[in-house]
Amino acid sequence: MYFAKLIIGQSYTVIGEQQKRFIVGEEQPIDKALFDYLKDNPQFEVREEKRTRKEKSED
Q1: 14 to each of 30, 36, 38, how far by Cα in Å?
Q2: 6: which of 19, 22, 39, 45 fits an S-S bond (Cβ 3.0–4.6 Å)?
Q3: Residue 56 lies in a domain
Q4: What Pfam families does the entry give (predicted)?
């Protein structure tokens, strides 16, 4: 699972396959494509949360 948080600015809207509006300080789940798009943007903190084997087997 991937997450992004706007850390610089007040709001930021991404328009594409999925439209997402980010508000400063609010972390939101995102997909891999949006993660790849935002990871080099200095206005964002992005992170990947790795799932454990137990979590994967419960799906």
Answers
A1: 11, 13, 10
A2: 22
A3: no
A4: YqbF
Q: Say what the pTM is.
A: 0.79
Rg (CA), the chain: 13
Q: How many of the other CB atoms lie within 10 Å of CB of 1?
A: 13
The phi, psi pair for 24, rounded to 5°, reads: -50, 130
Three-state secondary-structure class, residue 33: helix
- The two three-digit tokens of residue 4, written as one number: 């992004």
**Residue 29: domain span:** 2-51
59 in any annotated domain: no
